[in-house]
Amino acid sequence: MLRGEGWYMVRELLRTGLSISEVARRTGHDRKTIRKIRDAAAHPPRQVRRKRGSRLDPHKPYLRERTAAGVLNATKLLGEIRRQGYTGGITILREFVQPLRPVAPTVTERFETPPGHQAQVDWTACGHLWHEEQLRSLSAFVLTLGYSRRQYVEFTVRQDMETFLRCHVHAFHYFGGIPAELLYDNLKTAVDHRRGDGTIIWNPRFRDFADYYGFTRVPVSRTAPKPRARWSAG
Length: 234
Known about the structure:
Elements: H1 4-15, H2 20-27, H3 31-38, H4 60-68, H5 74-82, H6 90-97, E1 118-131, E2 134-145, E3 151-156, H7 161-175, E4 181-184, E5 191-194, E6 200-202, H8 204-213, E7 216-219
Parallel strand pairs: 1-4, 4-7
Antiparallel strand pairs: 1-2, 2-3, 5-6
Helix pairs in contact: 2-3, 5-6
């Protein structure tokens, strides 16, 4: 089963309406493989890699005890476990000990919005792939809900207005609703230009789209914090 860019390339070709035979011809993969990708879930199968063991593994319980007792000097710990038979280097030891060091508490103000009230829209660059016999840029449309941090992600080889609006509609269907506000950070497909006083002039077609679906367009402030997000394909 294909993974990574090859998987997304096949899905994108199928999305354009090409037949299984034509996609197989363009990509060089067999039709059975193309059919499996067509019938698969909305994201590629996760590749599980077997984790290799480390020379440090037998000594980790001892190291946890020593760091809990306040011994954090990697050179000192290296000498102690060398006497126990450790034959590895100090770099892997330092990497293991680093997360065990106490962290000074910090006070931060978290930016929160009510459920369903706000989301942020961005394009993310995802490298390149071969599409229709051309090397194209692969992009991801990402809509992140401000309250739950859930995301809708759609991969595409275009960032034109048609694709931009279509991805919005797919996201609305995926979440089963439309946030009251959507935030945009100078996206060309959303913002036509800024006036000298900083006033946003929205793209007329995008403005009509927002008015039709009933959400408020909000420019991302340069000083206000953005909603945090984590990556999870939807």
